[in-house]
Backbone:
């Protein structure tokens, strides 16, 4: 049977690689490197740097072209489902062609594979399509952990929950009944569209990389500054990844 090692590689700094992740890469016969086009070239370079730095034996690398996702109109789930189906077909073809029976393949997943990443769902699809496949998941340091560490904050208040959500969901308003909300995948700066009320924001972009930017303060005071800094950085680099914690002030 073919076996996949689904390895969390951390969120931007090669030093995020855990000992377990490094060992997993060194067990792989083939490393599959996703290529999401020019926009994410910087992310591909980090994956290549990780392979060059940590893999100590000869190892085949295979580039995986990621199909473009159709623009999400009203049927967001349908569009994503179709996109995942095409990615799964692509992976199945590559696994059959590039990975022999009994070999180990590694998939390098940004941050942690369990958090807002589709790799595990896609691998389930590949197995469901009939390819005999086993896999192991190696956790990684997520961007959320790096955000908290860089701002030197705990994500939760004592004994209280933390919600992790998307910019798309936040756009409908700050979730009722929550006081600590982490927002990922926010291409539309939803933080600047909601009522700032008594919220603080802890924002981070390019976390873990030499280009990291951190801004924190009352949302009402810093939302405009974050929008401006974000737009400038995005233009300079051609891409941006940012995440933030919104937290109600204690009375
Ligand atoms: C597809 S999700 C992947 C999350 C990843 N699995 C993790 O554990 O962080 C991509 C989102 O993660 C966040 N993100 C990932 N890396 C980041 C970084 N270095 N700095 C800031 N945000 C990051 C952004 O919100 C981005 O839109």
Residues:
């Amino acid at each position: 049977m073919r076996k996949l090692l689904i390895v969390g590689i951390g969120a931007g700094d090669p030093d995020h690689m855990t000992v377990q992740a490094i060992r997993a890469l060194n067990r792989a016969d083939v490393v599959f490197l996703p290529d999401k086009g020019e926009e994410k070239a910087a992310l591909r370079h980090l994956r290549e740097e990780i392979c060059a730095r940590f893999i100590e034996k000869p190892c085949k690398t295979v580039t995986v072209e990621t199909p473009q996702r159709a623009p999400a109109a009203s049927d967001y789930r349908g569009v994503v489902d179709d996109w995942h189906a095409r990615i799964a077909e692509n992976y199945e073809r590559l696994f059959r062609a590039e990975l022999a029976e009994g070999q180990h393949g590694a998939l390098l997943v940004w941050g942690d594979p369990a958090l807002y990443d589709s790799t595990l769902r896609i691998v389930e699809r590949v197995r469901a399509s009939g390819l005999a496949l086993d896999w192991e998941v190696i956790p990684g340091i997520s961007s959320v952990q790096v955000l908290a560490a860089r701002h030197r904050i705990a994500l939760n208040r004592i004994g209280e929950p933390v919600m992790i959500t998307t910019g798309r969901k936040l756009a409908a308003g700050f979730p009722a009944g929550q006081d600590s909300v982490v927002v990922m995948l926010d291409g539309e700066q939803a933080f600047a569209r909601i009522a700032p009320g008594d919220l603080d924001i802890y924002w981070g972009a390019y976390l873990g990389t030499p280009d990291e930017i951190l801004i924190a303060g009352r949302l009402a005071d810093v939302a405009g500054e974050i929008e401006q800094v974000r737009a400038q950085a995005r233009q300079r680099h051609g891409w941006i990844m940012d995440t933030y914690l919104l937290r109600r002030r204690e009375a």
